Amino acid sequence: MAMWITRSRNIAYHLKTKIGLMEILNQRCLSSSSYSNPLSAANYTTGKNCRTSTSPPFLSHDSAAQFVTRRIKSVNAAKQVVDRQDQNQALDFLGGNVAFTSDLSFISEVPEKKVHCYRVLDDDGYPITSNNFPQVSKELAVKMYSDMVALQTMDTIFYEAQRQGRICFYATATGEEAVNIAPAAALTLDDIILPQYREPGVLLWRGFTMQEFANQLFTNKADYGKGRQMHIHYGSNKLNCFTMSAPIATQLPQAVGVAYSLKMENNNACAVTFCGDGGTSEGDFHAALNFAAVMEAPVVFICRNNGWAISTPSSEQFRSDGIAVKGQAYGIRSTQVDGNDALAVYEAVREARHMAITEQRPILIEALTYRVGHHSTSDDSTKYRPVDEIEYWRNAKSPVTRFRKWVERNGWWSETDESELRTKVRHQVMQAIQVAERTEKPSLTEMFTDVYDTLPSNLLEQEMSIREAIKRHPQDYPLDVPLAFWCMCLQAETSVINLNFRQLEGLKESFGFFILIIQIVYFVKSSVYIMKKLALSSICSLFFFIFYFFIEKLKFLYLWLLEKLLIIVIAREVLKVRFGEDGWVDKDGCSQKPKLMM
């Protein structure tokens, strides 16, 4: 968290002090009448090896003025002037120099050239061409396939665990394993990931263990989110992976901000974010693309176009030729790739990362794939799509099977390796589930931690409401609430006139010896109550019954002593008096000797 706060402060510092608002306004006025070196639309092609634009220099602390000039020129990038045969003049607008004509025409809704989908392996795992074939080592290919199998196995077992009622919710990535693993393989650990909820493979590639996955799903105290996050919403600060965001597409504009901070820090890294085709219907998607293009942020957008936004088909979401063309509309270099071809996805993301960093520009990748599993455990996809279609993509179009065939033909994999891998992964997942189930749940007090140093009044009110609920219905909580929270609730119940330890500590200067006695009695009474609860909740705890029998006899003595001591406290507070040499002296200086009935 501190890392992101520091980056945000750096951004604000540069925008406010290094760049200067007045200098930006002055530069904008100067640039409105002159547009030099306009960006050509031809620079934004979907060609794999197209790097026509000059790589911009990295921002440094000593180049504020140069950055302002370059930034404004980028914002006011002139549109390409297309010379007409009969007219060579151009109109000078703030948006750029444009050619004009007296013939009215409209741009067609259908692009003149259809976007081509990039792939290198056919459905049977054979290379389509030997030209420009991605160079992948044996070690990399084997790890990619191993993680695809691990993701597939993990999804199957965790999905079954949810159906058994052992976890509350799950969503699989079945059929989209290549879009999970291949992008992660093409990136470095310095690149920052902002995933959606269907990219656990990215974390798996970076070293997130099965135990860490299970801890999050079972919401135990070993979970990094302490059980407060929705299921399958993983995250890891050490692996540079943001916690998954439940609201659709909200991570996209956030990724632009992260990428811009990387740009300002001169890091040789980029931000990478994922979304589905349904996410492109959200306003955040369009805001993020425009934001990234204007700010020239080194961010790679990867859209998984699986044809369905839960139950809404693509035909009811948009009329454009896929998602890639949307990037061109915002001035972003884009491409379309076969999302079930692991090698094609790997090469596309690797090239996109290179362009994003060296040219300081955003890239949009549309990965065409298919969601074989249901949207989540709350969904039955057979209600809106035929079963035959699902089985066809599961068997004939599986990205795992396709990549395995290619690896086997290279002599890098065997049937023995396959059997050993699947047995090993299944054992790891099952063992992780057993450990996660046995691990204690987080204390309910964790619901209010890790955000505020001092809780605000509304959270304090919520905390007290939880305490009251547990006190009223203890039979509903014993198996789920840790002992630590029981102690907190029982101490709250035994407190008198809302005196807690913090308040007592604050009175120590005024009351000295009395506060020590009160704390002792307070602690003993709380202990008695705790022992009572523990004894009643455990049949086998005969010791607690015996202990409680003897302690209960002394309970009235403790209460009597506490009552008398608190009378002194109340008199001190309510009457607003201080202790003088001649007895009790009120605030007006009059000597008083009230009789305290002991």
From TrEMBL:
Please name the PANTHER family in this protein's record: 2-OXOISOVALERATE DEHYDROGENASE SUBUNIT ALPHA, MITOCHONDRIAL
Q: What is its main location?
A: mitochondrion
Query: What's its EC?
Result: 1.2.4.4
Q: Which GO terms describe its biological process?
A: branched-chain amino acid catabolic process
- Which Gene Ontology CC terms are recorded? mitochondrial matrix
Give the stretches traversing the membrane. 510-527, 534-551
Q: Which InterPro entries match?
A: Alpha-ketoacid_DH_E1_comp (IPR050771), DH_E1 (IPR001017), THDP-binding (IPR029061)
**What protein name does the entry list?**
3-methyl-2-oxobutanoate dehydrogenase (2-methylpropanoyl-transferring)
Q: Which cofactor does it need?
A: thiamine diphosphate
Which reaction(s) does the protein catalyse, per the Swiss-Prot or TrEMBL entry? N(6)-[(R)-lipoyl]-L-lysyl-[protein] + 3-methyl-2-oxobutanoate + H(+) = N(6)-[(R)-S(8)-2-methylpropanoyldihydrolipoyl]-L-lysyl-[protein] + CO2
Class of enzymatic activity (EC top level): oxidoreductase
Q: How does it assemble?
A: Heterotetramer of alpha and beta chains.
Indicate whether Oxidoreductase appears among the record's keywords. yes
| Keywords, in A-Z order | Membrane, Metal-binding, Mitochondrion, Oxidoreductase, Potassium, Transit peptide, Transmembrane, Transmembrane helix
- UniProt key word Oxidoreductase: yes
| Organism of provenance | Camellia sinensis
A GO term for molecular function: metal ion binding
Cellular localization per UniProt? Mitochondrion matrix
UniProt family annotation? Belongs to the BCKDHA family.
